[in-house]
Automatic annotation (TrEMBL), chain A:
Matches recorded under SUPFAM superfamilies: Radical SAM enzymes
Cofactor requirements of the protein: [4Fe-4S] cluster
Alphabetical keyword list: Iron, Iron-sulfur, Metal-binding, S-adenosyl-L-methionine
PANTHER family, per the entry: FE-S OXIDOREDUCTASE, SLR0304 PROTEIN
GO molecular function: catalytic activity; iron-sulfur cluster binding; metal ion binding
Record carries keyword Calcium: no
A matching Pfam family: DUF3641
Domain Arsenosugar biosynthesis radical SAM protein ArsS-like C-terminal: 216-349
NCBIfam families: rSAM_SeCys
Protein name: Radical SAM/Cys-rich protein
Domain (Radical SAM core) ranges: 58-196
TrEMBL record, chain B:
Carboxymuconolactone decarboxylase-like domain boundaries: 23-101
GO MF assignments: peroxiredoxin activity
InterPro entries: AhpD-like (IPR029032), AhpD_core (IPR004675), AlkhydPrxdase/COmuclacdeCOase (IPR026445), CMD-like (IPR003779)
Protein name: Alkylhydroperoxidase/carboxymuconolactone decarboxylase family protein
Highest taxon listed in the record's lineage: Bacteria
Keywords, in A-Z order: Oxidoreductase, Peroxidase
Gene3D superfamilies, sorted: AhpD-like (1.20.1290.10)
């Protein structure tokens, strides 16, 4: 398994332009498969427009203790893009005044940002209804200085959303690296110990599942049942919900698809699974994504493709919710990942 | 024309069989999708049965399709391989049980 990001490997695909070139050409330019734009135009959804801002998703940096094979952020220990305290302060101003009910911190491993704890403390005072931190679990066991994270999350009533590719060791380690499974299990047990994930507990612990390969996630409810049963029987672990998320064909996952010669089949599978009913609720219709350096995007995926919002407000320092909501969302063929089957978003299925 | 009998890409065109016989094709696909719904057997169990049968009838398209279907359902490779063995055991058993016929015939023809 690679230990460096595409960026550190100086891979051609680390460039957003190169990725967009792949997504806009080949089987789509040949007319073998329809462009996403044409597909959503059929049901009157082009241009795609936001409805109401509900989720503010802030990416506090691309540094991560892991280098997962499917990572759409191309995160890793070698990434130096980290949100500064100054940009965090600008975000806090927005958080205090936003109409969004959910604040969603992501990364990389958000906990690796040196000002992460300060930011969480400040943000938790703003009174947002649902305050999510996307934690990869292993970070909790990566170093002594992180051992108290479960207590810290609890103190600030953070909703923990964690990634867990499978309930078996082999599959988890293949996608995320050796030892990830055992560390994740230990971290989940510790979250349970402080009260996270226990049925009826207000301390929410949800898991995210991404397929570890070139296939789409199965039924979210069936997978949740399988995960619950296996984690309970084998490790005495409890959690609330499982979000099944489709891997979008960008960044490292795109690199994997191309290298393994699965790209065309995967795009066919996404287009075949296109569900018009998912279009109205794709994530970008209710989310704004903020990058480590304060730029604004329709979603975390567009952030990685360097497609800034098509609005005259483009940076957190100029934030204006009303102006931002009046924009067209930028789309490309990666968007098929959000509309396949039951749909996919950071909160799981959408249709 | 392709110069080989099997092309993995042909699986994508399976639905096209309906074009040359709308009624029968549609009836088949309705039946097919109904069969694999949750029922007295779970969709997961049916996926494993399909995988085993795919091997017994040696259909490369079905093997591709039900390996992928199994992955999507979170079925492990150990489960998949056991299903293939279940199919193989029945298939070899079906061959071997004919050994009794051979023995009967042998005995009948021998003095
Ligand atoms: S998928 Fe998550 S845990 Fe894995 S490298 Fe990317 S950011 Fe880190
Ligand atoms: S990839 Fe982003 S822009 Fe495209 S549909 Fe999904 S959320 Fe919207």
């Amino acid at each position: 398994m690679a230990t460096k990001s595409l960026k550190a490997q100086q891979s051609e695909l680390s460039s957003a332009n190169k990725q967009l070139e792949v997504l806009n050409n080949g089987i789509f330019a040949d007319g073998e498969l329809p462009y996403f734009k044409d597909k959503i135009a059929e049901i009157g959804h082009f241009p795609l427009r936001p409805t109401k801002l509900e989720i503010l998703q802030i990416n506090v940096g691309y540094m991560c203790n892991q280098v997962c094979a499917h990572c759409h952020v191309d995160a890793g220990p070698d990434r130096k893009e980290i949100m500064t305290k100054e940009t965090m302060a600008q975000c806090l101003e927005v958080i205090k005044n936003t109409g969004a009910h959910t604040l969603d911190l992501t990364g990389g491993a958000p906990e690796m940002n040196p000002n992460f704890r300060w930011f969480v403390e400040e943000a938790s005072r703003a009174g947002v209804k649902d305050f999510i931190v996307r934690s990869n679990l292993t970070i909790i066991r990566a170093n002594k200085k992180y051992y108290d994270l479960p207590e810290f999350f609890k103190k600030h009533n953070v909703h923990v959303v964690s990634s867990m590719p499978h309930y078996t060791r082999g599959k988890t380690d293949k996608q995320r690296g050796d030892g990830v499974f055992d560390k994740s299990i230990k971290a989940l047990q510790e979250l349970n110990t402080v009260g996270y994930g226990i049925p009826d507990s207000d301390l929410r612990l949800d898991l995210v599942y991404n397929p570890s390969g070139a296939y789409l996630p199965g039924d979210q409810i069936a997978l949740e049942q399988d995960f619950k049963k296996a984690l309970r029987e084998d490790f005495n672990i409890e959690f609330h919900n499982l979000f099944a998320i489709t891997n979008l064909p960008i960044s490292r996952f795109l690199d994997y698809l191309l290298a393994s010669e699965n790209y065309e089949d995967y795009m066919y599978a996404l287009v075949e699974a296109y569900n018009p009913a998912a279009v109205a609720n794709v994530m970008c219709t209710n989310t704004i994504s903020v990058s480590w350096d304060g730029w604004l995007y329709d979603c975390d995926f567009n952030q990685m493709l360097d497609l800034k919002v098509a609005s005259k407000i483009k940076h957190i320092k100029d934030y204006n919710e009303e102006v931002l909501t009046d924009r067209n969302i930028i789309i490309s063929q990666h968007c098929y990942g959000c509309t396949a089957g039951a749909g996919s978003s950071c909160q799981g299925t959408v249709a | 024309m392709a110069d080989s009998y099997y092309d993995p890409k042909d699986l994508r065109k399976f639905g096209n069989i309906t074009e040359w016989s709308e009624e029968l094709g549609s009836k088949f696909f309705d039946y097919y999708s109904k069969v694999f719904e949750e029922g007295a057997l779970s969709a997961r169990e049916k996926s494993l049965i399909a995988l085993a049968v795919a091997h017994v009838v040696k259909c490369p398209y079905c093997i591709d399709a039900y390996t992928k279907d199994g992955l999507q359902r979170g079925i492990t490779k150990e489960e998949m391989m056991e299903a293939v063995h279940a199919g193989a055991a029945i298939e070899s058993g079906a061959t071997l049980v004919h050994g009794v016929q051979m023995m009967n015939k042998y005995n009948k023809l021998s003095m």
